[in-house]
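job 3f2a | input accepted
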Amino acid sequence: MVNQNNIQLQLQTLPEKPGVYKFYSIDNQLLYIGKAKNLKKRVFSYFQKEPETLRLKLLVKKIHHLETITVPTEYDALILENTLIKSLQPKYNIQLKDDKTYPWIVITKESFPKVFYTRKKNIPNFEYYGPYPSVIAVRTLIDTIKEIFSLRTCNYLLSDENIKKKKFRACLDYHIGKCKAPCIGLQSREEYDKNITQIKKIIKGQIKDVLMYLEEQKKEAVEKLEFEKAALLKEKIEILHKYQAKSQVVSEVKDADVFHLHKYNQRTYIGFLRIVNGFIIQTFISDITIQSDESDAEILSTIITQLRERFYSNAREIIVPIQPEFEIPDVKYTVPKIGDKKKLLDLLEQNLIQYANEKEKQLAIKDPETYTTQLMQQMMKDLRMNKEPRRIEAFDNSNIQGTNAVSAMAVFIDGKPAKSEYRHFNVKTVEDGKPDDFATMKEVIYRRYKRVLEENLPLPDLIVIDGGKGQLNAALESLEALQLKDKIHVISIAKRLEEIYFPNDPLPLYLDKRSPTLKVIQHIRDEVHRFGITHHRKRRTKSAFQSELLNIKGIGEKLAIKLLQQFGSIEQIKKQSLHDVAKIVGMKKAELIFQHFKQSAK
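job 3f2a | predicted structure (602 res):
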């Protein structure tokens, strides 16, 4: 529990300086580490009013005491927060997935260095590059490097002394052209080191520099009439061009980091692109755990610091969707609206959305209970509810020019259709020929929930009305008459722009088109519409039978359905020849039908 006296006393004495704050529980467990431009204002904000979300409420409830560390600048606060989170790993802080499983490219620090990839980190005498998002990306890069430059793969200790003493023999790699055999003195250290320098440039994305280097070598070979060597260099240049073509070209953006975040169904997904010399050389996408309620700007500041450190980036420009909370010295933030930089942000966002969708589908299969809980929590938040919408009932009206007016109800339980509970309503109080959608809705809602009360059936957590404010208000009148208005959450959804209307609120809510909440509401709206239309068609067909075909002596329901299925409508049957109708029902009954139509036309 919060030690109010202790906390209030500390709040009064907090400095108004940049720094880092740490929240502790009563048993001295570290709960959360945060950064602030102004420690007093930031920490005080946690205790000023009732927390808006359950997560923040749980955090504040556990705080017993706090500690602060002041630093000279905002950026120092950002760096210190990152360092402390990594070393102390508090429960409520943003947790990036551990990078120990990601592959790295290493260049050994020895005579005639080797180049390969590993998942092990911090091994002495290894120069690390990465990490990379997948083994496939690393293998593609290493294979390209080995096609261009001859590298050794052996574990020989290639000291000058050992080479002079001829301790080694050339291996198979030399004989198949993959190594120039520095072990027996056929390749100099100087030539080998020049290749390593170019390899490092390729790994860092400086492909343009390497292409210039190879072009110069090719030109020199031609001048010396070394045409075989020139042809080989031409092949290497083509290989590097092909590898370069696989990267996303960015014409105007030369060197920059791109960051984006995407929130979906109670989770936050973050993405990073690293641009060097106009090409994407590194990508990273992950979901993060957020236990407290940082703003998007705060999350972005934390993620930028962590990922730039992880990927060893010193880019002077950072492209972002919104301005981060904290500045970084000598680094410019860009929030683009148009152009190549905006295209980069859009590209990253598209990948984040795809990644989030895949993760959600995997979670729904692997752990449906957790997925449903997250979905219900998100819907509760989006729709301003005080409990999860576990049971949803939706209503839609169907009529054509006021005839055969019907209404339908669809039911979703835990976000999925419960088709056995769908219901039809044949409208009683609205006269045919006088369509009144509001009166229909009012009647159907009253009938449905009067029966629910009488039969002690479960009340829904949410009612969804297909329509705008008029239909919503009609439904509310019936609920009020049944004294249920304040017991059930009611919304309506208008088809044109997918506006969601709430009682007593003139302004509609527009949810993101990718929102899981909107998808559930659209799904149940489409279900109730489909169910209502199907029933309406059956009623119209039955009505048509009764008014025309079923009045003909000798024509039963089966023959009537057969005729309508073949020709589509009564009007179309009237247009057919006697011979065509006889093919379906026989000549005798065809004559009866034509005689009936002839008499009715008089």
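job 3f2a | The chain has a mean pLDDT of 83.
job 3f2a | closed
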